[in-house]
Write a structure and sequence with these properties.
The protein has 305 residues and is α/β, with parallel strands linked by helices. Helix content is 38%, strand content 19%. α1 packs across α6.
Length: 305
């Protein structure tokens, strides 16, 4: 029988930009059985983990952000030491929520909340808010580099909750591939590690019977599968990923997000995301996300293979 000292614990660290949805993410984790703490000072992290392990806790989620700005520089080192312990093992997943500066400014303006780094006495509040957001990006840059990044600029809170819950089903894998389709007309996802532009490929949008469908529909998939350029693009992306993924695994990456973009994010990018996820799913843990349509099944789901 294992002792409290040997009890492994799954720690999820939620961090990111103020206004990016950290409270929503923490609530989602609480819904699936995590014990959640918001705004824990980094200095208390190890003591808190030891306390929870003495209580035989299995899953804990903590939110840390720029509200603890003075202590954040030392957090990456604390997290590394926590993972390297030979006793009381800790499985760590760090999730960084991000959004464009324009989106964050709008959210703060709508809620009339003050940014944690804003100066109340500033003459130009809009400029002060923008400066505070950019300063926050600088403070959190090192944490962002070590985390799974989710861009919340264009997703609703309900969708973010679904993505958080689904992602945690993949955390035991050494490396998880997230394949994401998107529309260039709505901007490149901030969470992408690799971006592939497929707008030069034949477009089903111009085929009247295919225009209202998506890359998830068989007629569109059959059309694109018959185009040599599409097959060539798929093979080249596959070759690129096969070459570099082992190196990223050796570099201790936990997640890699591959974004495929076309004009509307409906046909070509969706089809290729599905094909790539199915192909790589034979050897890697894979997830699928279609950014542009909430009606498609599962905004973030395990790939079928």
């Amino acid at each position: 029988m294992s002792s409290p000292e040997d009890t492994p614990i799954h720690l999820v660290l939620i961090t990111g930009m103020s206004g990016s949805g950290k409270s929503v993410a923490l609530t989602a984790l609480e819904d699936v059985g995590f014990y959640c703490v918001d705004n824990l000072p980094p200095e208390l992290l190890e003591a808190f983990i030891e306390l929870e392990q003495s209580h035989q806790a299995a899953r804990v989620a903590i939110a840390m952000d720029v509200r603890s700005a003075a202590s954040l520089p030392g957090l990456p080192k604390r997290l590394l030491q926590l993972q390297r312990r030979t006793t009381r093992p800790v499985h760590l997943t760090t999730v960084f929520l991000d959004a464009t500066t324009e989106t964050l400014v709008r959210r703060f303006s709508e809620t009339r909340r003050l940014h944690p780094l804003s100066l109340k006495q500033a003459h130009d509040q809009h400029r002060a808010l923008t400066d505070a957001i950019e300063h926050e990006r600088d403070i959190l840059a090192e944490l962002r580099d070590q985390a799974l990044v989710l861009d919340t600029s264009l997703i609703r809170p309900t969708r973010l909750r679904s993505q958080i819950k689904d992602l945690l089903g993949a955390t035991q894998a050494p490396l998880t591939l997230v394949f994401e389709s998107f529309a260039f007309k709505r901007g490149i996802p901030m969470d992408a590690d690799f971006v592939f532009d497929v707008r030069m490929l034949p477009n089903p949008h111009y085929e009247p019977e295919l225009k209202p469908l998506s890359g998830l529909d068989a007629p569109v998939a059959n059309y694109l599968a018959g185009q040599p350029e599409v097959l060539q693009m798929e093979a080249q992306i596959t070759g690129f990923l096969n070459h570099w993924l082992p190196q990223m695994l050796r570099d201790h990456r936990s997640y890699v997000t591959v974004a495929i973009g076309c004009t509307g994010g409906q046909h070509r990018s969706v089809y290729l995301v599905e094909q790539l996820a199915r192909s790589f799913g034979a050897h890697w843990s894979t997830r699928v996300r279609h950014r542009e349509d909430d009606s498609w099944p599962g905004p973030l789901r395990a790939a079928e293979h």
